[in-house]
Design brief:
- 0% of the residues lie in helices and 45% in strands.
- By secondary structure, it is mainly beta.
- The protein has one domain (3-134).
- Strands 1, 2, 3, 4, 5, 6, 7, 8, 9, 10 and 11 form an 11-stranded antiparallel β-sheet that branches.
- Strand 10 (111-118) and strand 11 form a beta hairpin.
- It is globular.
- The protein starts with a strand and ends with a strand.
Amino acid sequence: MTTATLPTTALAGAGASVATGKAGATGATGQLTYFDTATRTYKLAQADAEATAMLAGVYLNTSEVIGSPVDLIKGGILGGLSSLTAGQTYCLSETVAGDVMLESDITSTNYMSTLGIAISTTEIQLGINNSGVAHA
Protein backbone atom coordinates (compact mmCIF):
# COMPACT_ATOMS: atom_id res chain seq x y z
CA MET A 1 0.00 0.00 0.00
CA THR A 2 1.48 3.31 -1.05
CA THR A 3 0.32 6.74 0.02
CA ALA A 4 1.61 9.98 -1.38
CA THR A 5 1.52 13.61 -0.42
CA LEU A 6 0.62 15.89 -3.30
CA PRO A 7 3.40 18.47 -3.69
CA THR A 8 3.11 22.02 -2.41
CA THR A 9 3.36 23.10 -6.05
CA ALA A 10 -0.28 22.00 -6.60
CA LEU A 11 -2.26 24.59 -8.52
CA ALA A 12 -5.63 25.10 -10.14
CA GLY A 13 -5.55 24.18 -13.82
CA ALA A 14 -7.94 24.66 -16.73
CA GLY A 15 -11.61 24.85 -15.83
CA ALA A 16 -10.89 24.66 -12.10
CA SER A 17 -13.62 25.31 -9.57
CA VAL A 18 -12.08 27.13 -6.60
CA ALA A 19 -13.76 28.04 -3.30
CA THR A 20 -12.67 29.89 -0.18
CA GLY A 21 -13.33 28.67 3.33
CA LYS A 22 -11.92 28.65 6.85
CA ALA A 23 -9.25 26.27 8.11
CA GLY A 24 -10.14 24.02 11.01
CA ALA A 25 -6.67 22.50 11.16
CA THR A 26 -3.21 23.33 9.89
CA GLY A 27 -2.51 21.99 6.43
CA ALA A 28 -0.36 22.47 3.38
CA THR A 29 -0.98 23.09 -0.29
CA GLY A 30 -1.96 19.81 -1.97
CA GLN A 31 -3.56 18.18 1.07
CA LEU A 32 -7.09 16.78 0.82
CA THR A 33 -9.83 18.16 3.04
CA TYR A 34 -13.31 17.44 4.37
CA PHE A 35 -15.83 19.97 5.68
CA ASP A 36 -16.52 19.70 9.42
CA THR A 37 -20.17 20.71 9.75
CA ALA A 38 -19.90 21.20 13.54
CA THR A 39 -17.16 23.85 13.29
CA ARG A 40 -17.96 24.99 9.72
CA THR A 41 -14.27 24.59 8.79
CA TYR A 42 -12.09 22.50 6.49
CA LYS A 43 -9.87 19.84 8.04
CA LEU A 44 -7.53 17.14 6.70
CA ALA A 45 -9.49 14.19 5.32
CA GLN A 46 -8.75 10.52 5.94
CA ALA A 47 -10.53 7.39 4.67
CA ASP A 48 -10.50 5.48 7.96
CA ALA A 49 -13.77 6.99 9.28
CA GLU A 50 -16.96 7.93 7.47
CA ALA A 51 -17.08 11.51 8.82
CA THR A 52 -13.52 12.37 7.77
CA ALA A 53 -13.75 10.52 4.44
CA MET A 54 -16.22 12.99 2.89
CA LEU A 55 -13.71 14.63 0.57
CA ALA A 56 -14.44 18.33 -0.06
CA GLY A 57 -11.43 19.61 -1.99
CA VAL A 58 -7.67 20.18 -2.06
CA TYR A 59 -5.86 23.00 -0.23
CA LEU A 60 -4.37 25.49 -2.68
CA ASN A 61 -2.55 27.42 0.01
CA THR A 62 -0.92 26.55 3.32
CA SER A 63 -2.98 27.04 6.46
CA GLU A 64 -0.73 27.65 9.43
CA VAL A 65 -3.39 29.11 11.71
CA ILE A 66 -6.74 27.56 12.59
CA GLY A 67 -9.48 29.92 11.48
CA SER A 68 -7.44 31.47 8.67
CA PRO A 69 -8.90 31.65 5.14
CA VAL A 70 -8.03 28.82 2.75
CA ASP A 71 -8.56 28.33 -0.98
CA LEU A 72 -9.65 24.90 -2.19
CA ILE A 73 -9.93 23.38 -5.63
CA LYS A 74 -13.13 21.35 -5.89
CA GLY A 75 -13.30 20.51 -9.59
CA GLY A 76 -11.50 20.80 -12.91
CA ILE A 77 -7.81 20.07 -13.31
CA LEU A 78 -5.36 19.97 -10.42
CA GLY A 79 -1.88 20.62 -11.83
CA GLY A 80 1.68 21.25 -10.73
CA LEU A 81 2.02 17.66 -9.53
CA SER A 82 4.64 15.01 -10.23
CA SER A 83 5.12 11.23 -10.37
CA LEU A 84 1.48 10.40 -11.15
CA THR A 85 0.60 7.40 -13.30
CA ALA A 86 -1.62 8.51 -16.17
CA GLY A 87 -4.91 6.62 -16.25
CA GLN A 88 -4.81 5.63 -12.59
CA THR A 89 -7.58 6.60 -10.17
CA TYR A 90 -6.41 8.39 -7.04
CA CYS A 91 -8.39 8.45 -3.82
CA LEU A 92 -8.18 9.55 -0.22
CA SER A 93 -5.54 7.82 1.91
CA GLU A 94 -6.68 5.54 4.69
CA THR A 95 -3.44 5.85 6.67
CA VAL A 96 -2.23 9.47 6.40
CA ALA A 97 -4.60 12.43 6.79
CA GLY A 98 -4.59 14.70 3.74
CA ASP A 99 -2.71 12.27 1.48
CA VAL A 100 -3.72 10.29 -1.63
CA MET A 101 -3.33 6.67 -2.65
CA LEU A 102 -4.18 4.53 -5.64
CA GLU A 103 -7.72 3.18 -5.67
CA SER A 104 -6.33 -0.34 -5.95
CA ASP A 105 -4.57 0.07 -2.58
CA ILE A 106 -7.66 0.80 -0.46
CA THR A 107 -8.19 -2.03 2.05
CA SER A 108 -11.38 -3.36 3.61
CA THR A 109 -13.30 -1.34 6.21
CA ASN A 110 -11.93 1.96 4.85
CA TYR A 111 -14.18 4.42 3.04
CA MET A 112 -13.92 4.93 -0.70
CA SER A 113 -13.60 8.60 -1.62
CA THR A 114 -12.26 9.21 -5.12
CA LEU A 115 -10.25 12.34 -5.93
CA GLY A 116 -9.94 11.81 -9.69
CA ILE A 117 -8.00 10.28 -12.54
CA ALA A 118 -4.46 11.22 -13.53
CA ILE A 119 -4.55 12.57 -17.08
CA SER A 120 -0.76 12.91 -17.19
CA THR A 121 2.19 12.56 -14.83
CA THR A 122 1.53 16.11 -13.56
CA GLU A 123 -2.28 16.57 -13.60
CA ILE A 124 -5.41 15.02 -12.12
CA GLN A 125 -8.87 15.56 -13.61
CA LEU A 126 -10.83 16.00 -10.39
CA GLY A 127 -13.95 13.91 -10.04
CA ILE A 128 -14.64 13.91 -6.31
CA ASN A 129 -16.94 11.04 -5.40
CA ASN A 130 -17.76 10.26 -1.78
CA SER A 131 -19.37 6.84 -1.74
CA GLY A 132 -19.98 6.72 2.01
CA VAL A 133 -19.37 2.99 1.71
CA ALA A 134 -16.67 1.01 3.45
CA HIS A 135 -14.53 -1.00 1.03
CA ALA A 136 -15.32 -4.72 1.13
